[in-house]
Amino acid sequence: MRFKDFVMSDTTMNPLSTWVEVPKNSDFTIYNLPFGVFKNKRLSPRIGIAIGDKIVDLSVLDQEGFFSDMFLPEGIFLNEALNELISLGKTQTKKIRERVQELLLADNEKLRDHSIRGKVMVNRKEAEMLLPVKIGDYTDFYSSMEHATNVGKMFRDPENALLPNWKHLPVGYHGRASSIIPSGVPIIRPKGQFKDPDMDVPGFGPSKRLDFELELAFITGKPTKLGDSIGTEEAEDYIFGFVLFNDWSARDIQAWEYVPLGPFLGKSFASSISPWVVTLEALEHFRTAGPKQEPEVLPYLQCTSNHSFDLQLEAYIQPENVKQATKVCTSNFKYMYWNVAQQLAHHTVNGCNINVGDMMASGTISGPTEDSFGSMLELSWKGTKPVKLDSGEERKFIEDGDTVIMKGFAEKDGIRVGFGEVRASVLPAK
Amino acid sequence: MRFKDFVMSDTTMNPLSTWVEVPKNSDFTIYNLPFGVFKNKRLSPRIGIAIGDKIVDLSVLDQEGFFSDMFLPEGIFLNEALNELISLGKTQTKKIRERVQELLLADNEKLRDHSIRGKVMVNRKEAEMLLPVKIGDYTDFYSSMEHATNVGKMFRDPENALLPNWKHLPVGYHGRASSIIPSGVPIIRPKGQFKDPDMDVPGFGPSKRLDFELELAFITGKPTKLGDSIGTEEAEDYIFGFVLFNDWSARDIQAWEYVPLGPFLGKSFASSISPWVVTLEALEHFRTAGPKQEPEVLPYLQCTSNHSFDLQLEAYIQPENVKQATKVCTSNFKYMYWNVAQQLAHHTVNGCNINVGDMMASGTISGPTEDSFGSMLELSWKGTKPVKLDSGEERKFIEDGDTVIMKGFAEKDGIRVGFGEVRASVLPAK
């Protein structure tokens, strides 16, 4: 029985089991099998699939003929990015993932008892994870109503927190692709201009209000031509998978620069992503209805099926020299008012073309309760309510030496599928 | 005598002459020699240099050993984009351009009298020009004070047209790279949401206010690392060259979507660029002082030398079935309040990294007079003053079937260096 068959029927509760040892609460179960790009001291960059504490080296499986019936391009897995693999199309990438799942099932001896097994299964903790895709264009949406409302309350009119366009279209903007970095790479506190309310003229220096934004991003898997649009019900054909996304933000720089053309240097210094791309197929079991949209949206944004997913998202802060990270936020991807199908339909309704490897982030995902707000701006309410950490320290924003960690996972019917984490420490400004 | 020597001394007025026939008023003189990527019915994509009505096929020159002392990577000119060539660095690309200039001088017989000459010199009118670079990230600035003032007067407060940040930093935003297309490719009128003042709820359909924006863009030629910044006086080392840039805009879509995160679908449906990249070196002779900046800018934006260029920029509209295009705007690159060195210094001051092939556009360049405004929005003052065309027709915005043409050139001391043109016709919405 393969994953596909399993999730097709929620009543068929025969859990899959694997011969790989998967720790309890691992995000990388037999149901997940995300794609990533890794290297280690011995191995050059290559594509793998994560399970438990291991990585399945797909290039070795390929060399040994485990995919020979699929007629894959030579060396497809010996690649520094997933783009070429993704470009083969969903039919192929699904087949590859399902083949790996078959090979990992407890009663399948083909790899389990093969002499090559030791070479195929690489230790995750010895691997360095690279940026999984060469990112073309990057777009950031603003699709959580709670987040947009909180920001509106703080910076505009508390009585009319949402701007007039917000419930009619998924507001979004183009971001900087070059500075998207994989988990583990430290970020440097950005310098820039700011003008605090008490200043007559703008000042310059390291940002004093460095923040995270808890987001999820999808990676496009199929190109369109300039002039073409994608309908909501075909949109998921164009989505390969998802990663956690920390949209680092310098609030003081952003506040001064952003009128009238939007965020720029307050964002472009870095964005961190988790390295394992969780496929859309792996999230199928956690599909759910999104918030009711009122007023009714225009026809090109209407959906006839569910495109939201019940995924818990968490943010943690770990100060330097403190052993334990403190969870400061628990949110959920299902809070998004605008779903991924609507985002993609909107993005292309004007004929804007997409390429394989474009990244589209959700925007900060905040929930309805104060502990579900997805940024320090909201959690500390613009710095007026410091957040207490387990170490006794307090934070209004992120300080030098702090590590910010984000996690995300779905769990239902004993099935867990997760993203691992995205983490980055903050170095002082240069 | 080479170009370099020539322009180093303005008093040395010995004009260069070439054995290639260069029509009067050609933009592609012996002083220019821009790089581009072309193909034709016989030839696969390759890199050339334009002179007069010809293209010098650099791949043939290379095969014949004309660059053998430079130890260039094999097949460097048989390329679909300039990125790899540009990545060799300015020292190399300058040498290549100077070698071509030498070979084209009237008294140099090496190519002139060589049997290969016919194969090297390709007719421009038989060539199809491709996008010259694979664009990484694209940024659009907003650096003309007259343009920002006009927009501010129309949409905000006529008495306080410029926003408070405008004179302190070069306002900019990230744009969509995937939809940047070369001259000649038609654009399709975009569809989208808009909400005119008389509408209670937003509508959907083809844009009714399609506009051009007259801009120039530079292409970066040298990468930086994440965390590094570029100073104003080293910025030009990172600039390879320039192209004309038509930042197509759907004003009605833009007006409804742009708060608070900036332009998105009102821009991302297409941007057109001229195919020949005019190098920074070719523009050296036309360097000039920019507008005085008052109040004084922060130290990281201060310049000790001139980074503005005296380049005339023009926009034309040619309706369908009309033989002659009407010039609707004459502007100049020197009107930019913020120069390219300041733009690049600002862009990287927060540590944002750049790559070879990034594109940074100026924003609409408007001058002080009504005939120098660089968009229909300004020329027709928000549609209140229709622009008369030579055919007797009027335009408030761009109509289906119209072709918009932009030209740009510098001329001084009998030396002319130009961009050719960027043109695109507008097809009806799908």
Automatic annotation (TrEMBL), chains A, B:
It holds the Pfam family FAA_hydrolase_N. Its cofactor is Ca(2+); Mg(2+). Mg(2+) binds at residues 247, 267, 271. The active site is at 147 (proton acceptor). GO terms for biological process: homogentisate catabolic process; L-phenylalanine catabolic process; L-tyrosine catabolic process. Keywords: Calcium, Hydrolase, Magnesium, Metal-binding, Phenylalanine catabolism, Tyrosine catabolism. The keyword Metal-binding applies. Residues 139-424 form the Fumarylacetoacetase-like C-terminal domain. Pathway: Amino-acid degradation; L-phenylalanine degradation; acetoacetate and fumarate from L-phenylalanine: step 6/6. Its EC number is 3.7.1.2. Belongs to the FAH family. This is fumarylacetoacetase. It comes from Algoriphagus ornithinivorans. The lineage of its organism: Bacteria, Pseudomonadati, Bacteroidota, Cytophagia, Cytophagales.
